[in-house]
Write a structure and sequence with these properties.
14 strands, two-stranded antiparallel sheet, 812 residues, cell membrane, 27 helices
Length: 812
């Protein structure tokens, strides 16, 4: 391979920094006040307690002193403290400047192709990337510090050096790791509360009256057969274990935990907005303007093809001229909706097809559960473990399908976004994120939604069951309800997805790719020059690393996990605990990947995390609705309340199980569905099933009873009250927590005032130094020297000025 190493001299860096309006520190420093005396003492005590958790890196944002920042200007060089030109612009800024130049430079040998991205897309160049620092031991190298204090599993207990990450990788990646760190730290209190809720369920399991009644063999609730012919009547006490296990997650504490998690999500988003503003202030991102983005190579190619089809050569020439001069097309050259209509149509049809495919697979798993349960019920040896076997195998099938479709949907979303031909990279990224999130959201949660809200709702009743596929009955919930099965489904999918993705997709596959590239490079080097491979240059080492493809996969993984933590937390209070354990490893895994396994990304300046915040906010609001329905419909919380306060004779739950079971006359079973060779130890006249229906001796047998409508009304009322209460509390929390921290808003105002004073003072000093020779000189010679000094470029006329030295080249 042939490498071209590009480095920019000081003049180029200064010109581009002024053009891009890059903020740099001035000579003026001021103190950052921490508030009142109490706040100072608390901050000092907190810093002392957390000192063992702090990474051993130079401090940046924690300093009490901060430089005033101002956009770089070559006319105001006297404002800046330029001691060494090589280090005035940091690594990330220099690489960003060079990349901006490359993006807008036309290549005349490639038909005036605009920018390095177009050259890479046309296979003229294979890659373009900034070089990593040489990995050596002296601690003044940022790359080495990041490896030692951030990218090792042994420092998992330490805070992240966010300022150092931003300095090396740029603001966009720095904000991602800051967000991931805040999310992980917020999982700690939710994990503690979740464990307390779970322990409350364990502690009160012996006091749960309904589960005790179900386990009481003297009650002898004779239940209707679970399947036709091969299934016999059975005692409800045989489901004792399921009923006791359901109480661990279906207890009054889960309602409190659902409210807490809804407020937790709001608190997390509000604190992230505050942290984002704080980082923006310390990173000099306040007040930056949105940069004009260059067109994507695919967009330029599409426009050229359009012009060629119209046989308008002058338009093509005009397009090339405009592209060369300004980096973007005129309005008349933009693609219209007619040009994009085939792509939009393909997107709409493909997304509908993918969603239908996901639902079809979920339905296929449902059919598998029904048919497998029926088949296992025919065999006496497997009949007792039918429910456990079917549930476990079905969840594993769902997990495997989700993992496979996740990879497919990611590739499909990228292909669909490409055929839309977005103009800029930002538009491309936003549309890709929306498509990938929609497909992966449906893929990950559709099996869970089925168990939570649809399973057991369309079963029918004895004597009038709902059948599918020629005689297979729709599956029912377990005697203790579907909440336990929902917990199993959620836990296995969440844990399996995290473990397999971390171990296989994030560790195993990249390692195999790296090993393959290394073997390939060694083979090629051995064929050409075996001696050269012994001492490879840094660009050779970086070329063997995995190309950087963006932060979308990293964010997507955490967003889907955020959905698992919030959407169904009423059924699985331990979800935050497993998310926390995963994220402690995930932070170091991602850090190691960026430091040692990926080529160094181009530094990108941004003020926020973009569309991801809107997605998080949407999931947080949707979680309120989903948890309200889980508590109201899936759990027995509402039926228990209704019974306790409306039907119980003594205000307790004694008799609740009997109240929820309806009677059925077995003589009314359809012909051919009665149990064959029943081994039940007594003659059965009536069997019980879980529903609120009129008994066989009522005027309207098997119709829904008044209790059914009462409970249904209570469920809907709970959903409305719960949703509005939590939404009100969330809005209240949002209102109470300001988006901008008070100290930061005060510092921003103070900085503006100090900047004006600093400008006036420096201008005065500059004019004073320029006029002093003229005032002291008695003759015209000195006056001529004074004019020469004033006409010289600013910052270069002073004797001994730091800018008087010759220009130096800065490697990038």
């Amino acid at each position: 391979s042939v490498f071209v190493r590009i480095h920019a001299p000081w003049q180029v860096l200064a010109r581009e920094a002024e053009f891009l309006k890059i903020k740099v520190p001035t000579k003026k420093m001021y103190e950052i006040k921490a508030g009142g005396s109490i706040a100072k003492k608390f901050s000092a005590a907190l810093q002392k307690l957390s000192s063992p958790l702090q990474p051993r890196v130079p401090e940046h944002s924690n300093n009490k002193m901060k430089n005033l920042s101002y956009p770089f200007s070559r006319e105001k060089m006297y404002l800046y403290n330029i001691q060494e030109k090589d280090t005035f612009f940091d690594n990330a800024t220099r690489s960003r400047i060079v990349h901006e130049i490359l993006k807008r430079t036309a290549c005349s040998r490639a038909n005036n192709t605009m920018g390095i991205n177009s050259l890479i897309a046309n296979n003229i160049y294979e890659a373009a990337y900034p070089l990593h620092d040489v990995m050596i031991s002296p601690e003044d190298k940022i790359h080495w510090l990041l490896y030692q204090e951030w990218a090792r599993y042994g420092v998992f207990y330490k805070f992240q050096p966010i300022d150092l990450i931003r300095k090396y990788f740029g603001e966009k990646i720095g904000l991602y790791f800051a967000w991931l760190g805040l999310y992980t730290s917020f999982l700690i209190p939710s994990s503690v509360i979740g464990v307390i809720v779970f322990l409350y369920g364990c502690a009160t399991i012996e006091e749960d009256i309904p589960s005790r009644e179900m386990c009481d063999q003297q009650n002898a609730f004779i239940m209707c057969p679970l399947c036709d012919k091969s299934c016999d009547y059975w005692n409800l006490s045989s489901a004792c274990g399921t009923a006791r296990a359901s109480h661990l997650f279906d207890n009054p504490a889960t309602v409190f935990f659902s409210i807490f998690m809804a407020l937790w999500a709001t608190m997390f988003l509000e604190n992230w907005k505050r942290l984002q503003m704080r980082l923006g202030y310390f990173w000099d991102l306040t007040g930056i303007e949105e940069e004009e983005e260059h067109s994507r190579p695919e967009y330029e190619t599409k426009v050229r093809e359009k012009m060629l089809k119209e046989s308008n050569k002058s338009a093509v020439q005009k397009l090339e001229t405009n592209t060369t001069e300004s980096g973007h097309e005129d309005d008349e050259d933009k693609l219209t909706w007619k040009d994009r209509f085939p792509g939009y149509l393909m997107n709409f049809a493909s997304i509908l097809f993918m969603i239908a495919l996901t639902f079809s697979i979920v339905f296929g798993v449902i059919v598998y559960r029904i048919t497998t349960a029926a088949a296992l019920s025919l065999n006496k040896a497997t009949r007792s473990n039918v429910r456990v076997t079917v549930t476990a195998t079905a969840v594993i099938i769902n997990l495997v399908v989700i993992l496979i479709l996740d990879e497919i949907y990611g590739a499909v979303a990228k292909w669909l976004t490409k055929i839309e031909v977005p103009k800029t990279e930002q538009t491309f990224e936003e549309r890709l994120i929306l498509k990938a999130f929609l497909l992966k959201f449906v893929n990950a949660y559709s099996p869970i939604f089925y168990v939570a809200f649809f399973k057991g709702r369309f079963v029918g009743r004895p004597g009038s069951y709902v059948y599918v596929f020629d005689g297979y009955r729709m599956e029912e919930c377990a005697p203790g309800g579907c909440l336990m099965e929902l917990c199993i489904q959620l836990s296995i999918i969440m844990l399996g997805k995290q473990l397999i993705q971390n171990n296989i997709f994030e560790i195993g596959v990249p390692y195999l790719k790296k090993l393959f590239r290394k073997l390939k490079d060694e083979t090629e080097a051995g064929e050409t020059d075996s001696a050269h491979s012994k001492h490879p240059e840094q660009w050779d080492l970086d070329y063997s690393l995995e190309p950087y493809t963006g932060l979308t996969p990293e964010y997507m993984e955490m967003i889907i996990q955020f959905g698992f933590v919030t959407l169904f937390v009423a059924s699985f209070p331990l979800a935050p605990v497993f998310a926390l354990l995963n994220n402690v490893i995930e932070v170091r895994l991602d850090a190691k990947k960026f430091v040692t396994e990926l080529r160094r990304p181009d530094a990108v300046r941004t003020k926020d995390i973009g569309i991801w915040f809107d997605i998080l906010s949407g999931i947080g609001k949707f979680s309120v609705i989903s948890n309200a329905f889980v508590i109201a419909i899936t759990s027995d919380f509402i039926p228990r309340l209704v019974y306790q306060y409306s039907y119980s004779h003594n205000g307790t739950l004694h008799g609740f199980v009997n109240h929820t079971l309806s009677f059925f006359n077995v003589s009314q079973l359809k012909e051919g569905t009665q149990p064959e060779n029943s081994q039940f130890d007594q003659e059965v006249q009536f069997c019980r099933f879980k529903d609120y229906r009129e008994p066989p001796w009522a005027p309207n047998p098997y119709e829904f009873s008044k209790q059914y409508w009462f409970v249904l009304s209570a469920r809907l009322a709970f959903v409305i009250i719960f949703q509005n209460l939590v939404m009100f509390l969330s809005v209240l929390v949002d209102w109470m927590i300001p988006d901008i921290p008070t100290d930061i808003s005060d510092q921003i105002k103070k900085e503006k005032s100090l900047l004006v004073d600093f400008f006036l003072k420096e201008e005065h000093e500059k004019l004073k130094l320029m006029d002093e020779p003229a005032l002291r000189s008695p003759g015209g010679g000195d006056r001529s020297r004074s004019r020469a000094a004033s006409s010289a470029p600013s910052g270069q006329s002073q004797p001994g000025s730091v800018m008087s030295s010759g220009s130096q080249h800065t490697n990038v």
